[in-house]
Amino acid sequence: MNKKLLSIIGAAAIVACSSSDHGELVGVQDRPEWYPSEPFGMVNIPQGSFNMGNYEQDVPYSLTAPAKTVSIPSFYMDQTEITNNEYRQFVQWVRDSIMRFRLAEGLIEGYEYIDYADMDEPNFFQEYKALNYPDSMQRHLDWAPFLEWETERYPSAEYTEIIEGLYLPPEEQFMGGRMIDSRQLNYIYFWLNKQKAGRKQNRVIYDYNDADADGEYFSYRDYIKDTKDISDRSSFFEKEIINIYPDTLTWIHDFTYSFNEPYHDKYFWHPAFDDYPVVGVNWKQAMAFCNWRSKYRRDFLHSERMMQEQDFRLPTEAEWEYSARGGQELTTYPWGGPYATNSAGCYLANFKPSRGNLTADGGFYPVKTTAYSPNGYNLYCMSGNVSEWTSTAYDAASYYYVSDISPDYQYNAYESEDETLKRKVIRGGSWKDIAYFMQNGTRDYEYQDTAKCYIGFRCVQSFLGRSVSDF
């Protein structure tokens, strides 16, 4: 009996020793595997350094972009500008979520709220919600039931009354059609103001002499909530309510004494323009799109029990210029040459050549996002077609004080602040601009709450884990 007991103890000791780290620093061993994937429609921009700014003649002598060597980490960038059809997916998601909310609030049969605990096969994200949120937070909209938009198929009179509230009244409908009331398409989201949270005066302050505070207390002197009892990061969340429908009237009010009406009522919704860059979207709407795109992807990854990726966002000004240069140094345009034409005399982008011959380059208004050849990083239309929003706030002197490590200057202006604080950098020039604005180093700006028929955007996503060995 004793021999048998000793053998069991010995076997247990061997197993314990075989799984031991022997007192060595080996790190945590049960970490999940990480398999990065290239986001759909994006290309990888490798890390590197480049000479940012205008190293040639500064045509307007503005001195806003002096040459400066900077370094950029790796990231992903959309191969093309965001198209009308891609942005329309955002618009329809907001429309559907508003409709489902109204149906759930109206207790319409088949569209009621769902409790996480009552779901047949809850996914990982739903399980987390059920375990970590109070009962009042354990319900969500049910996205499974089909939404019926055809009037002759409405399932009930109550359904009809609710769904018709999202349409324009008959006297406001355009061309007799059933137009969605775009004034109701408001997207509500929260984002963490990391700049505010990162300020030293907003950090946690420990008081080891205060016995009543158990050796610590929090002090957030620059807070958002109207209370001094702040003790977690929710104090730094900002709330945004954005109407996300593009301003289609930009085609009319952007130009005086000019006939652009056909584009006003066709450009965004007509299938002929599905692959054209979305315009009439201001900076705030572009930021809201990035937030929604991140949420849309994150919800899917949670449902598949996959690890979360980095969020989508607008590129910084430095990231945009680095991408536009396509891996080449000291070049004037994204295609590498000093001229806007190739050796055969063909124009290489959609802009305003010569003294205003808009048709010489093959375009007139915006063209398809893949209409011209890509640059060295396989990015289309980095110059011309439409100018593009960046996340960077515009300051004429920012090049003189920003870091040379992934440089950026951000400022989120409130509606009540001065107009000059609402300026955001746009890059690349557009179909109505002369060649100077298409140059890699040229800076320009527009106000964050202003939409134009010649400004669009594309998204980026930071790359996790890039190292020298990956090249």
3D structure, described in words:
- The protein is an alpha+beta fold and 471 residues long.
- Helices cover 21% and strands 13% of the residues.
- The chain has nine helices and 16 strands.
- The protein has helices at residues 2-18, 84-105, 124-132, 157-163, 194-198, 250-253, 261-264, 283-303, 317-324, and strands at 42-45, 48-52, 68-72, 75-78, 114-115, 139-140, 186-192, 204-205, 217-218, 237-243, 312-313, 387-393, 423-427, 444-447, 455-456, 460-462.
- The strands form six sheets. It has a four-stranded antiparallel β-sheet with strand order 1-4-16-11. Strands 14-13-12-15 form a four-stranded mixed β-sheet. It has a two-stranded antiparallel ribbon with strand order 2-3.
- The chain is globular.
What is the structure about, briefly put?
The chain is α+β, with helices and mostly antiparallel strands and 471 residues long. The chain has nine helices and 16 strands.
Describe the structure using short key phrases.
four-stranded antiparallel beta sheet; 471 residues; 9 helices; paralog of FGE (formylglycine-generating enzyme); alpha+beta; 13% strand; four-stranded mixed beta sheet
